[in-house]
Write a structure and sequence with these properties.
single chain; seven-stranded parallel β-sheet
Length: 222
């Protein structure tokens, strides 16, 4: 499966990895379980999340994780009754998953993460100590460390306002198309998204960025 994922990566984007470096947004990515794929572009990681998370789950130490099929949950994590967990999925140490949370499509959570009530997380990677408060949707995204997403904030992953629905990203001021119709955001360490804010597909948020309450962040708009 991993070989297929690497093959599928070829030709996915005209952007070069050297133009967009994950380490600029996630300084500790090379010491994380994602390090094998740290040279990939963000939308490559999210589009192959099911394969990647399955591989990470298989490599987890059984003495630290409860493993059932393609779901690995650290024994110090808390999952409340009523949460819906669909594999492949990894939940790290001391993380908390609240009642009504819905995790699907290949998700990886680092240690000390919080997924609050009625949050949906789809095909995404969440690094240490980040929090989705409640009533959030985060799709096809990479969330750095210490990111706080207040109640009702949304990271969209699909451009349904146009027929072709292709995703564009703005790198170094230049807007470029990428070969996918599903990608939310790369959210750097320490970012904060205010309540009821909306991040449009294709966002690249540098570390410590702030999106105000009720604000729209759409980086296709110059």
């Amino acid at each position: 499966m991993l070989a297929q994922a690497i093959g599928a990566r070829q030709g996915m984007s005209s952007l070069k990895s050297s133009m967009l470096c994950l380490q600029d947004y996630l300084p500790r990515v090379n010491s994380s379980p994602i390090k094998t794929w740290a040279s990939w572009l963000p939308w490559e990681l999210t589009s192959q999340s099911e394969t990647i998370v399955t591989k990470i789950a298989m490599d987890m130490a059984t003495e630290e994780f409860d493993i059932a099929g393609d779901i690995a949950i650290h024994r110090t994590a808390i999952v409340e009754s009523g949460a819906v967990l669909k594999g492949p999925l990894v939940i790290g140490a001391r993380s908390f998953i609240a009642t009504g949370a819905y995790l699907r499509g290949g998700c990886w959570l680092d240690e000390d993460c919080v997924i609050g009530p009625c949050c949906e997380l789809k095909s995404s990677y969440v690094f240490a100590a980040s929090k989705l408060a409640h009533f959030n949707f985060v799709g096809d995204s990479i969330i750095g460390e210490r990111v706080n997403i207040e109640a009702g904030a949304i990271i969209c992953n699909y451009r349904n306002e146009r027929p072709e629905a292709g995703i564009n990203v703005r790198v170094n001021g230049v807007l470029s198309a990428v070969n996918t119709t599903k990608f939310g955001a790369l959210v750097g360490d320490g970012c904060r998204l205010g309540a009821n804010s909306v991040v449009a597909p294709g966002a690249l948020l540098k570390p410590e960025s702030i999106i105000g309450r009720t604000a729209l962040c759409d980086q296709e708009i110059a």
